[in-house]
Amino acid sequence: MVGLHHSEFKNPVIKWIDTRLPIFTLMQAEYGKFPTPKNFNALWNFGAFATVMLVVMIITGIFLAMNYDPNTGHAFDSVEHIMRDVNYGWLLRYLHANGASMFFCGGLYPYLSRHVLRFIQSAA
Amino acid sequence: MGTDTTHPEEHGATRRDFIYWTAGAMAAVGAGAVAWPLIDSMEPAADTLAMSTTEVDISNIPAGTGKTVMWQGKPVFVRRRTPDEIAEAQKVDVSTLRDPETDAKRVQKPEWLVVVGVCTHLGCVPVGEVPTENRGEFGGWFCPCHGSQYDTSGRIRKGPAPKNLAVPPYKFTSDTNIKIG
Q: What tens digit of pLDDT does each residue of B96-133 get?
């Protein structure tokens, strides 16, 4: 079993996957066991917001790209097509448009202003 | 976590178990609610479905050749078969076919074969509408992508495709017109 991960999980299905690709161990280590200070307040949610919005932007972006036509002659029509004809295309586009604002203003800027400024301060 | 006394393994279900299962169920519902619009967006769009029927004038198709028309964004082959091609399609032993289907089940009038021109392997458009194109060993269509060969009834005979070319719903509105869809 050289090279395979030694999994601690009991569930045989999870253990089988985790032995070969230790994603469950990784999630448990990073989000379950990872020690965090007691005095975290709600402001620390902004890092998680930024992560969630990044994933939302990638997924909606991939699905929008399936119907978008990046050609000066066809781009407008393809956006109309997404908004009117593609099933849930309006939802994908609005999620992507508002998600961009939510990613930067609601997640990334608070996150960066805390961590980058603290890093600059400590490095200075 | 070392002093956790609310989760004794030997005492059956606990409140914490209940919360785990409830949270898991909510996560499953949430994942489904996210997946549904994403998958549904890949289904045919409303403008494609709006083009639900296509009328085809078949009066100027010479025997032995076909005409490609678009129906719901897909190419459809309308082929006028020669008596030889009809005989060939009918004499095949159905039990030897990969996707067994008699010729009679695939046509309404033996002279006219109407099939969706999308290879059942990976969706290329086979060639062979006119005799000058490669029709493969069985005289129907040949798919240039991976070499699937269809006979004069649009049935798969050789190559990687698993199924016969699909027959769309259609009817003859007159002797010279077909309405597909």
A: 888 888 888 888 888 889 999 999 999 999 998 888 88
Q: Does A92 sit within 8 Å of B37, measured CB to CB?
A: yes
Q: What are phi and psi of B177, to 5 degrees?
A: -135, 140
CA distance A53 to A64: 16
Instruction: Using alpha carbons, select from B151, B140, B171, B145 the residue that is nearest to residue B58.
Output: B171
Query: Residue B49: closest CA among chain A residues belongs to which residue?
Result: A85
Q: Are residues B148 and B176 in the same domain?
A: yes
Domain count across chain B: 2
- Residue B45 and residue A87: Cβ atoms within 8 Å? yes
Residue B62 half-sphere exposure toward CB, CA atoms < 13 A: 5
Same domain, B25 and B114: no
Residue A39 DSSP class: T
Residue B150 shares a structural domain with residue B112: yes
Is pTM beyond 0.90? Reply is no
Active site residues of B: 146
